[in-house]
Amino acid sequence: MIIKEMSWNNGLPFLPGYSFPDVTKSAFHRSQTLVYKDGYAVARRPTAGIGQDPLLSEQLIQQEINELSFDTPDLIYGSSEQGVVEEFIPAYVAFDKKVLCFRAYFQEKILFSTEDECRVRPVVIFYYLEDDSMCIIEPAWENSGLHQGTRLKRHRLPKNEHGEHYQWKDLNIGMDLTVYGVTYRITQCDAFTKEFLESEGIVLNNSEQMPVDPYIKRRQNPQPSFTTDSTASKFIDSSHQFLMMDGKVLCFLALWYDADGLIGQTRPVSIHYYLGNDTVEIRLVPEPRKGMDPSYILMRLKKPPKKLKAGSFPSCVLEVSAAEVDEYFSPKDFQTGRMVTLLGRRFLLYDCDGFTKEYYEENYPDMEQKPTEIPKKTELSQERKKEVPPYNGYGSLEDSLQNCLSLIPNRPNKDVRKMLENAGKVLNYSARLDSQYPEDEGRRFLLSYFLSDDTIRIFEKRANNSGFIGGKFLEKTRIPKPSSTADSPQFYSPADFAIGATVEVFSHRFVLTDADHNALTYLKSNASQMDSMHQKLGVGTAHNEPADQNGKNQFKSQL
What we know:
This protein is α+β, with helices and mostly antiparallel strands and about 550 residues long. Helix content is about 20%, strand content about 25%. The protein has 4 domains: about 25-75, no CATH class; about 90-215, PH-domain like; about 245-380, Roll (PH-domain like), CATH 2.30.29; about 415-559, PH-domain like (Roll). The chain has helices at about 1-10, 55-70, 75, 90-95, 190-200, 215-220, 240-245, 355-365, 375-385, 395-405, 415-420, 515-525, 525-535, 555-559; strands at about 35, 40-45, 100-110, 120-130, 135-140, 150-155, 175-180, 180-190, 250-255, 265-275, 280-285, 295-300, 305-310, 325-330, 340, 345-350, 425-435, 445-450, 455-460, 470-475, 500-505, 510-515.
């Protein structure tokens, strides 16, 4: 065969470039595929191969056409018995939001402790099927004092030093899972985890009980201990009381009898009794349109003493300690409808919240907590006035009363509307001193009555060779009537001033002899109010002429 082929090549060696399959072929050029159209070079698709041979792609197309021409229609349009191909779903879609949940615990050793050797701390292990990542979370316990929460963030946990990671096939109940030097004992799993693992052919072990923490067990059954704190709490161990009653607060609504109670006003407050440590806090309830800070605390958290030990103690200098207290306030001392005195302040309890009612129904069934009706302001004012000491005679009644209400006296309340309407209106009267001493016979005075605040001011006219200096005799002040008392004072009013009337000012008797034009005009405009006074005195005329002829027209000279 080789000899025959070599004979076709005219004795050429059988090497590449010297052998030709078709010796009759004379064209070996490549067809031109670049042409010019409208002056631009345009590439066209070749129609023939080298040496005008048909292209391989055209040969395949022609071969497929020939084969399809002899096939049946079932092969062209497909058979009805053809199988359905299952749709491919990636793992991150199939296992999205599918998490295996295991409950486990680990033991933490306690060094240098004579009571506990270790702590049992429960955890929850989450395994995310979509990316084989895991995270470990420790549930937070209230007031545990431990750093709890997320122990290990979500990532792929290493299984060994060879770079392998934990898979869901490696997890089962009753096994130890060692991660970063900490051994977690898996005790239980949820329903979804159990169903998933059993569907994959994994046989789950029986669930285990989580051991009890020795510290929690010891706290639930505390040993009796002796305390020096004199408290009325039923808990002997303060730590046990804190763990059992922390966050539980008794809330009462009350009225504070403060300084404003004298004029029929009180301040609403809320009293909070913390059962965790038997402390009391008092907050002012913000009133609408008062501009009061809602966070204003009247009394901060502290244990108010109920009964002190016998003996003198300088409470104004030092704070009361437990050594000076016989008994502290307890929940049995608070009941709606009662008056409670805390640090010298009196509070009337009139309502409480739902938790407080349930607490007293369970622990103090004899003390019924019912909302009571808030007393009227007049009743509060009368009850408060009983505690005010009697008037000592120094200063005005209002000023002396403010000294009894607060360390820094406040300015007494005044009628602002009356002051604005009668601003600058003054009734001036000329008066003489009614005295039993003969040297006071010639003394003359100017008595001014201010309508804005019902105050009186008295000046004395200086007379030649009288021996009296003259000038200001009485500062501007309110003057009570001689028949009034300090508890119910009655002050002089414009109806008490008439020409010829006698006004007693702090044991000095003044007889009004004349009045200025403003006073006479005011008397005429209020004649109905003055007639009863004139008839009682038996002085004055229809024209308000002065009854004392010696003091007639003396007022103008004094001005």
